[in-house]
Amino acid sequence: MKISEEALKEFKEIYKKCYHQDIPDEKACCLATNLLNLYKVVYSAPEDADREEKVERRRWNQKFKS
Question: Which residues of the chain have pLDDT under 50?
Answer without folding.
Answer: none
